[in-house]
Amino acid sequence: MTYKLLLLPGDGIGPEIMNEVREILGFMDQAGLASFELEEDLVGGAAYDAHGAAISEEAMAKAHAADAVLFGAVGGPKWDRVPYDVRPEAGLLRLRKELDLFANLRPAICYPALADSSSLKREVVEGLDILILRELTGGTYFGQPKEIVDLGNGQKRGIDTQVYDTYEIERIGRVAFELARTRRNKVTSMEKRNVMKSGVLWNEVMTDLHRRDYADVELEHMLADAGAMQLVRWPKQFDVIVTDNLFGDILSDVAAMLTGSLGMLPSASLGAPDPVSGKRKALYEPVHGTAPDIAGKGMANPIAMIASLAMCLRYSFGLTDLAARLEAAIANALESGLRTADIMSPGMTQVGTNGMGAAVLTEFERLSA
Ligand code: NAD
Ligand code: IPM
Ligand code: MN
Hints:
Layout: E1 2-10, H1 14-30, E2 35-40, H2 45-51, H3 57-65, E3 68-73, H4 88-98, E4 103-109, H5 122-125, E5 129-135, E6 147-150, E7 156-159, H6 166-181, E8 186-191, H7 197-213, E9 218-223, H8 224-233, E10 240-243, H9 245-258, E11 268-270, E12 282-284, H10 303-315, H11 320-335, E13 338-339, E14 349-350, H12 353-368
Parallel strand pairs: 1-2, 1-3, 3-12, 5-10, 8-9, 8-10, 13-14
Antiparallel strand pairs: 4-5, 4-11, 6-7, 11-12
The structure holds nicotinamide-adenine-dinucleotide (NAD), 3-isopropylmalic acid and manganese (II) ion.
């Protein structure tokens, strides 16, 4: 079986961290662990500079044809003034929407070696293993109208629309309950039903779905603002958190800091399984962005990107042993005391992107011998 992978490194640190993933893919191929057919293309600012669009039609076609997409990051100050419709981030949003990648899994795991790297106390984060499930194709990101209207009196009005239909809430809810069954069997649904109609519907649909099909799973409802507070107060109370597109974006950056750095958090964006082949469209990307402040310096942490590859092996290819081995390689590299600048602490050895990527690869090779 040869897997068709599309690599979209993007901008800023995107290409730097993707290089480390390419090395690991090369080793897997060469060692006969898995066989890959790699395609590569531009996305984001790089695509805008080349084609005047944040993603070309050719790259979209490659994404549709691929078994999975590995995505770096897009955006940066260079493109702050480009028209809204072709800004770098539009390339990522188009991929999510056109591939219908509605389920975004953002696991926040505190590796034992990093229990002292978080801004929170060791006892708060030690052993943390939670999963934020973010709805990714609806809500304020895509709701219409979405525009700036000139009111003609010297005033303008900026409009974004939060919209959710029953089926959108139900399908992300199902993913939440199914995932919880493979973990600690608890789902916390976060919305703001006290001020938002979409929150009222979200709450109703989750409650009905739970009663109908998932009564064996514990379901808890939490207002999203209180949820943000609980996430930093005592995050270990959570197992699976399911929430909308915008709240999920914000809460997952908060969760990242529980693990030590935004440079640690991977993600998987999944579509529905095809009724005939059972295959699902998928894109894997770190939760972080292009880190303009450190781009080009070779100091970015590649672990979120490498852990996104591990999620790809698990969720797209069913290579669960290899995925677990790659995650163990990450843990071992951290245990050996190597740190990129973002997770550096006293007594540890600081390395750059290449140094950390090479250390993970060496561990991966050792575990594969
Ligand atoms: P960011 O995630 O790029 O950076 C936030 C902070 O985290 C910075 O200090 C950065 O140095 C640090 N950081 C992030 N990733 C790191 C890594 N791997 N290793 C070490 N440190 C890391 O967020 P931002 O600065 O708000 O956004 C910059 C650009 O990235 C914007 O254009 C934004 O739209 C874009 N962005 C893209 C994605 C994506 O492509 N998925 C995600 C978030 C932000
Ligand atoms: C993320 C990013 C994106 C989002 C941007 C770059 C469009 O912040 O993946 O978390 O807001 O979804
Ligand atoms: Mn984000």
